[in-house]
Design a protein that fits this description.
By secondary structure, this protein is mainly beta. The protein has one helix and 26 strands. The strands form six sheets. It has a seven-stranded antiparallel beta sheet with strand order 1-22-19-24-17-14-13, with no helix packed on it. About 40% of the residues are buried. Bound molecules: cobalt (II) ion.
């Protein structure tokens, strides 16, 4: 038995769906088309998560330009590449190739400048980028970076045949690739066969959502169609979530402990105050945010 009361196997009462969100079509970087599922107006509701982008296209014009050099400060980026290949390079000296189910976890901390450039000229590029906030005390920590190939990600298959990949946190005794004390993120990729159900205990105070990227699921009797985010209600009596699939489905289940701190975002900088944003802009302008090897600012 696990000593963590929220790492058990059964849920007595599922959270309900508070709201379905379709996201907004937009483009970022040098013109990569994507859907911003978690937008800025949901940052308080889904604290500690700041953003979720879904990208997926078989048209190279939608992704070829990639994300040339740009800065970040004050939070973490988690990129999950379902299909395709993307090369990452940053000012802290990290280089990585992200592909086929791999995850890149980057803690920007006090600052990195990085690029994310597709390494393919045709075929499907599909994945997600999640932004996870850092508590104020950690926003100026040194940058940190890890690449996980799909084979390195902890996995399990439930009795009902649900394939669970544990990117962050812990699920049914399987500890994920990354854990964080302050925000306690849970990030699961679930492949649910038709007719299966999946139960995940969740602390009531943690904010949680589900994003369906294949098929359709039901949560507490409410249908969640493909390409929709279901924000899960923080009902005090609910001890987790139960996800049911009538047809084959793939979903992300993401939850975390809210920081309950002020959130001030200016583009790629997320701090606690306007003053800290001015500082980030000054540091970036003056080349103190980091510079990439061989590319003096
Ligand atoms: Co970036």
């Amino acid at each position: 038995m696990s000593s963590n009361p929220f790492d058990g196997t059964t849920v007595q009462q599922s959270r309900s769906v508070e709201r379905l969100v379709a996201g907004q079509a937009t483009s970022d970087g040098a013109g990569v088309k994507l859907t911003r599922v978690l937008t800025q107006n949901l940052q308080h509701r889904l604290d500690p998560f700041l953003m979720l982008d879904a990208f997926g296209s078989d048209n190279p014009n939608d992704y070829l330009a990639g994300f040339p050099d740009h800065p970040h400060r004050g939070f973490e980026t988690v990129t999950y590449m379902i299909a395709g290949r993307m090369r990452h390079e940053d000012s802290a000296g990290h280089v990585g190739l992200l592909e086929n189910g791999g995850v890149q976890w980057m803690t920007a901390g006090k600052g990195v400048i990085h690029s994310e450039i597709p390494q393919q000229e045709q075929g499907v590029m599909e994945g997600f980028q999640l932004w996870l906030n850092l508590p104020g005390r950690d926003k100026m920590q040194d940058p940190w970076y890890r690449d996980f190939a799909n084979n390195d990600l902890p996995k399990r298959v439930t009795e009902q045949g649900v394939a669970v990949t544990v990117i962050a946190g812990s699920s049914h005794g399987v500890t994920g690739a990354v854990t964080r004390d302050a925000t306690q993120p849970l990030y699961l990729d679930l492949h649910l066969p038709a007719g299966s159900r999946f139960e995940q205990p969740l602390p009531a105070g943690h904010n949680a959502f589900v994003y369906v990227y294949r098929g359709e699921v039901a949560i507490a009797g409410k249908a969640v169609p493909v390409q929709r985010m279901a924000i899960l209600a923080n009902t005090p009596e609910a001890d987790g979530v139960v996800i049911e699939a009538s047809a084959d489905a793939r979903v992300l289940l993401i939850a975390g402990k809210p920081l309950k701190e002020p959130i001030v975002q200016y583009g790629p900088f997320v701090m606690n105050s306007q003053q800290e944003i001015y500082q980030a802009l000054n540091d970036f302008r003056d080349g103190r945010l980091g510079e990439k090897a061989g590319q003096p600012a």
